[in-house]
Amino acid sequence: MSTTSFLPARAWLTVGLLWIVGCLNYLDRVMIATMRGSIKEAIPMTDAQFGLLTSVFLLVYATLSPFAGFLADRFNRSRVIVVSLFVWSLVTWLTAHAKSYEQLLLTRALMGVSEACYLPAAVALIADYHRNSTRSLANGIHLSGVMVGSALGGVGGWLAERHGWAYAFNIFGLIGIGYSCVILFLLRNPATDDRTVPAEVGVTPKVRFGEAIVSLFSSPAFIVALVFWGLLGIGGWAVMGWMPTYLNEQFKLSQGSAGLSATGYVNVAALLGMIVGGAWADRWSRSNARARILVPVIGLCIAAPGILLASTTPVLGVALTALVCYGLARSFADANMMPILCQIADPRYRATGYGVLNSFACLVGGVTIYLGGVLRDAHVDISRVFQFAACSITVCAVLMYFIRPQPAKQP
Q1: What is the C-alpha separation between 201 and 199, in angstroms, rounded?
Q2: Among 19, 80, 207, 363, which residue's beta carbon has the most beta carbons within 10 A?
Q3: CATH numbers and ranges of domains, the chain
């Protein structure tokens, strides 16, 4: 009998519900990067100030991510997700009504607060439902929704050209508020999860933040994973934050075309990569305990040359092909990060651990995007940011290779 037949009844329903939430999560956060011209026309600002709009989101998001992960370990994960979706959707709607740069900056900071609670809770909830046989694939399917949301971020630039920059924030904010009411009735925690060790049905032991942090950082494997995830954030956020602007200026694309090209090609490829990387790791893990580590290593060895080529070629077709290779291969790491964390961290602290990883990656990413704006104001070629990102991805591949699973940590 297949191992997957022992999954809880709502296991795949949960992945499907969270797929839509993940899509909205990234759509709401990234579409601002694709409407730079429209926003600057309506609310005057320098390029460094525009970069700060994303950076302040990331810095707030990063600061709160460990605590948000702790909330998901300490309390009901499904309810943390519902509240997070409702609040960030409300903030998205409020963003459309900002009239000054200061108000826009405030809404981006508030979005960082509300969105921080989602991802650690979501990937931990999926890990609770899905054990070794389906864990990477389930995580990859969920995160493919994130990729779709990132790809649809380009729609923000397209809508801004036709209806004004506030239109997309109005529409997607209201959609998110409505969907939060839907999942309030459908999303549930499993009857038991890995935090109940030894398991007692319906009972989740108390989790303390300090104990969680000490437990995580006492593991050398977790520290290596932390550095790895932080460096990987350089590449991801450099592409997300500045590739639309790079394509717009390097290849003379319109704002809408550049936004759709930068987010669309990369994230559609990443969507496929999530599924391939997750399914491959699950299948290979049946014969190799390090499969979920080795699959990302292989992917990163392809992704680094991809982003380097995209930022140096004078041919648009070659740049887009390279971005597709980058998006496809880099996503192997995303699909397997929580499954890897399940191999090296105490089950009680998985959401906190993911929050810590997310925090460091976003801090690094926020600095990367802001420095990109500073370099532009100083008339330095923005392609330098992408070249540095390619180097960081190469280092990531080396670090990932040296992570060793700890069988005692796994369910």
Answers
A1: 6
A2: 80
A3: 9-194+203-409 (1.20.1250.20)
